[in-house]
Please model this.
Amino acid sequence: IVPHTIRGFLSRYSTVLPTGEAFSQCVACSPTVRKAFEDEGFTFLLKVFNDLDYLENLTGLRAMQLATDLSEIIELSDDEEI
Model:
């Protein structure tokens, strides 16, 4: 379980760190990303900075997005009832 966001509340001057199960294809903390950084160091960072799709391709996130069956997604407009 890892925190992925920090939520702040100015009215209470407080923060909350919601936690959840780590996503295996996270572009920030997945084992694939950490290993690539450990192995390649600054070269890895250059790849990330110069290629917008590098992390998505490295982690398999892009392949997962492409594999989504769009026909299974139900689109509702504002005037439709559920």
